[in-house]
Amino acid sequence: MKKILSMVFVLMLVSSVWTTQASAASYDRAKTAKTVKVYVKAGTSYKVAYTVPKGKAVKVIGGVDVGWDQDRWYSPDQFGFYKITYKNKKGYVAQGNLNFKNKHSWVPGIKAKAKKYAKRYAGSDPYRFVKNGGAGKDGYYSIEHKLNDSWQTMGRVNCKTGWMHG
């Protein structure tokens, strides 16, 4: 009986360590480029929840390609939003107000969204993501699919906000 209880305890301990390690990579790192307003929802017309001083580290846990109160969806400069946490408080920061440690690292959830888009349009053709410059502080990827032995660009994605165009 003691061996079984010991074994259960060890399994629970290993499981909790595994969960902690898995969740540690569930955000992207950034610092504020200036003192920024953090909104309760993705949009500049929403209530400001709090502010974060310039140069402070935040965790980016998601992205929104266009604020709910914005209508310039056709432009990569259309004011997407980063979903962040700062001192255990969540909120949304307008695009361009953060400096990322790695411009081309994917924010959680964005690559999965881009893969769905690519699969929908590439069909049975192979597809890939290719880094490209992009404007501003965010990284962009071209979404390409292979057609008749040649790679064709079918769109572009902002790996921080999820904005896609193709």
Please explain how this structure is put together:
With 166 residues, the chain is α+β, with helices and mostly antiparallel strands. It is 22% helix and 37% strand. The protein has a five-stranded antiparallel sheet with strand order 6-5-4-1-7, with no helix packed on it. Strands 8-9-10-11 form a four-stranded antiparallel sheet, with helices on one face. The longest helix is centred in the N-terminal third of the chain and has 23 residues, at 2-24. The radius of gyration is 20 Å and the shape is elongated.
Give start-end ranges of low-pLDDT stretches.
4-24
Helix content class:
10-25%
> Would you count the extended β strands for me?
11
Radius of gyration: 20 Å
The strands making up the biggest β-sheet line up spatially as: 6-5-4-1-7
Overall shape: it is: elongated
Mean pLDDT: 82
Alpha-carbon distance between the termini?
A: 62 Å
Structure annotation, total helices: 2
Largest sheet: 5 strands, antiparallel
Q: Which percent range describes the beta-strand content? A: 35-45%
Going by helix content, strand content and strand pairing, the class is: alpha+beta
Order of helices and strands: HEEEEEEEHEEEE
Primary descriptors:
166 residues, alpha+beta, five-stranded antiparallel beta sheet, four-stranded antiparallel beta sheet
What's this, in brief?
The chain is of the alpha+beta class and 166 residues long. It is 22% helix and 37% strand.
SSE map:
Elements: H1 2-24, E1 28-32, E2 36-39, E3 48-52, E4 57-64, E5 81-86, E6 89-94, E7 98-100, H2 110-122, E8 127-132, E9 140-147, E10 150-158, E11 164-165
Antiparallel strand pairs: 1-4, 1-7, 2-3, 4-5, 5-6, 8-9, 9-10, 10-11
